[in-house]
Please model this.
Amino acid sequence: MSQTAAIQFLMDLRDTDALRVAYRTRNLLQVVFHARDLGYDVTAEDLAKTVARLEFGVVVDKDQQPFGGSSRLWRSMWGLAYLDYVVEYVLGRYSDDELRAVFVPQAGVMS
Model:
């Protein structure tokens, strides 16, 4: 499993309203279980690493803020289901080309 598969799963959630609605109230273990049942080769660890990597990029690269508790991004999650926050406020800050460039598998490198 790789972060490449995790980002594809998150992009599919972003692009498929019914899928996103079905997953929005599930906890991480339920998300992984059902995602694997649909054929996504995802693990909880890879999903967590993928989201953390994207959050870091939003805070440091896009917002040009120090990575910490006072970053503007963290206020976006208040009142939202975590998955909605990830899809709207984190994934939503990247173009598809940026996501593919960050998570494209590189020869000899495991993601």
Remarks:
- Residues 3-101 form one domain.
